[in-house]
User: What shape does this take?
Amino acid sequence: MSLKFSSTASPDNTTLYSNNAPDVFSRGSLMFTFELLRKHNPELALTIRNIVHGTPLDKSDQDIDCQNTDHFRVQISPLQVRAIVEGLVAQDIPSPSPENMGKVIMAKALLDEWAKLARKMLQELPEEQNG
Assistant: This one.
């Protein structure tokens, strides 16, 4: 598990986070989500893009100071996460071929990331709502 430490904290920048936390997404994952959703759900896609325009989580001193290594905490509603998962599942992703293998793998990994956040949100529901 990769943990990050920082000396300052704000609502968006916690002092400790893991790149593997269900609610932490890389800049690339969020932008790919935006690209895949923007034609079918532009409002939700804009919500995702706005996360990237916020302040990224603090990086450790060992991280390269590059936008591509930025991570963001995603704080959206469970209904929005559900819409993202449904939107990604509905994508017309072609069968893997040598020309599109990378995109297919990335789309499946992206769906897994959002499903992981959805599972976390379900586990955090009060018992009477989790049925």
